[in-house]
Design goal:
By secondary structure, the chain is of the alpha/beta class. It has 16 helices and 22 strands. About 50% of the residues are buried.
Length: about 500
């Protein structure tokens, strides 16, 4: 029987005021309903924001090291429940179990980093230009944070936002994706068990159009952090600007892997298989464009074709599965549509391109060659296991082609030429560049995010995420006992 979950508001698990619910189905076996969740409305968001706003004064006054202790307890519970959460994740959204465990581990790493940050939250001190005067900067919490997360990393990405938001002293209204709400609810239960006070963390499930828009437009939410598509991100930025919110957007990608003649080709094949087909290509950092130098083009494709045939597509909870299903029927239809776009634009289908003949939303790993660099397959984020391959004659042509998209999240180059590696680091238009590694695999203690239509200047992960969830306050303390005038009084005047 499907498990029923509720919203979490003011420390209580409550149904939506609408009384409506939605089903959460297993993408490997769509007839199986895993759980049922509230289909919430603006009224539910209002209640959650009210609870968060009331909880903020007390929570924000708790010293950061003490807040960190609660988050440490939550992280320890995550360790205890790692396998349970990974198994639920695999059933709920189709991530292979090995990857699902990594998803939970990413949250564990993020939680322990936040615990340490409770005794840092570094800012700045600097000399004053006047005597007997101190000048320094501190970090202060912003208020109520609205967090909107995607389904493809249902523990990791919420952890990137919830841990730092709470550590910094904010309270939270959290909207998880409707394709992975059970994992999100279990994650919230962990914070509840760890001792996060009522109202500090609230969760409201439902559609982006209803719940997401209500969060983005609510006047009492002061900061919004969103991960998802560029189209939705632009909409959130537009709405949030009307109430002068701080907004952090982490959006799409069309990530290139360049392979040069000096590269270790077997290593590069490993990289593209993992980058393009890990998580069934459903990552914003997925390798969707493979740029090969003509000197190794044919040999590389032969090796890649041999290896891609060995990938196992199957039930994601089986240990040896390499690719699970796409997340839902809409995602499957989108991939099928892009296969048509590719063929219609003159691309050659080297491998795959078909739905797998079994229950669920399974699709073959797909490789296109002879791709027009300006075609939709080359330019648009597909979010599926589709790889576009290009041939180039030089390093400069490879860099130009890599940059020829509106996104700029992750990038990769395989080369043993130090000049090529260093130039690629400088010239690739991306927030992340890997040398001799695939485009996926971010580490939690380093900044994560992109340029162009991938982001709006903020970075999650590491120390930089705390810049999203804090405001800087400049402090001046004048202990001279007289009026001093910055820029007017001079040192000579004070002598």
């Amino acid at each position: 029987m499907a498990k029923e979950y509720l919203n979490y508001i003011a420390g209580k698990w409550v149904p939506s005021k609408s009384g409506r619910t939605f089903e959460n189905r297993n993408p490997s076996y769509p007839d199986e309903v895993i759980s049922v969740h509230p289909l919430s409305t603006k009224e539910d968001v209002d209640e959650a924001v009210k609870a968060a706003k009331e909880a903020f004064p007390k929570w924000s006054r708790i010293p950061a090291p003490k807040r960190a202790e609660i988050l440490r307890r939550a992280t320890e519970i995550l360790i205890e429940r790692k396998e349970e959460l990974a198994q639920l994740m695999s059933r709920e959204m189709g991530k292979p179990i090995v990857e699902a465990r990594g998803d939970v581990q990413e949250a564990i790493d993020t939680g322990f980093y936040a615990f340490g940050e409770g005794r840092r939250l570094f800012a700045f001190t600097t000399p004053s230009e006047l005597e007997n005067k101190a000048a320094y900067v501190i970090r202060r919490p912003i208020g109520v944070a609205g967090l909107i997360t995607p389904w493809n990393f249902p523990i990791a990405i919420p952890s990137w936002k919830i841990f730092p938001a709470l550590l910094a002293g904010n309270t939270v209204v959290f909207k998880p994706a409707s394709d992975s709400p059970a994992t999100a609810a279990e994650f919230v239960k962990i914070f509840e068990e760890a001792g996060v006070p009522p109202g500090v963390l609230n969760m409201v499930t439902g559609s982006g159009g209803e719940v997401g828009e209500a969060i983005a437009s609510h006047p009492d939410i002061r900061v919004v952090s969103f991960t998802g598509s560029s189209v939705v991100g632009a909409r959130i930025a537009e709405i949030a600007a009307r109430t002068y919110k701080k907004v952090s957007l982490e959006m799409g990608g069309k990530n290139p892997q360049i392979v040069m003649p000096s590269a270790n080709l077997d290593l590069a094949v490993d990289g593209v298989l993992w980058g393009a087909f890990g998580t069934t290509g459903q990552r914003c950092t997925a390798t969707s464009r493979l740029i090969l130098h003509e000197a190794i083009y044919d040999e590389f494709l032969d090796r890649l074709l041999e290896r891609v045939k060995t990938l196992k597509i199957g039930d994601p909870w089986e240990e040896d599965t390499n690719m699970g299903p796409l997340v839902n029927e809409g995602a499957l239809k989108k991939v099928q549509l892009y296969i048509k776009y590719g063929l219609d634009s003159g691309a050659k289908l080297l491998y795959g391109g078909e739905r797998v003949d079994r229950p669920g939303y399974f699709f073959q790993p797909t490789i296109f060659t002879d791709v027009d660099p300006n075609s939709r397959v080359a330019q648009e984020e597909i979010f599926g296991p589709v790889l576009a391959v290009f041939k180039v004659r030089s390093f400069d042509e490879a860099i130009d082609l890599a940059n020829n998209v509106r996104y700029g999240l992750s990038s990769s180059i395989y080369t043993n030429d130090i000049r090529e590696a260093m130039e690629a680091i400088e010239r690739l238009e991306a927030g992340i560049t890997y040398v001799n590694a695939p485009t996926i695999g971010a580490e939690t203690h380093l900044p994560f995010g992109g340029v162009k239509q991938t982001g709006n200047g903020h970075r999650e992960g590491g120390w930089t995420v705390y810049e999203i969830f804090t405001e800087l306050k400049t402090v001046y303390i004048d202990y001279s006992g007289r009026l001093q005038k910055a820029q007017i009084d001079t040192w000579e005047d004070l002598e």
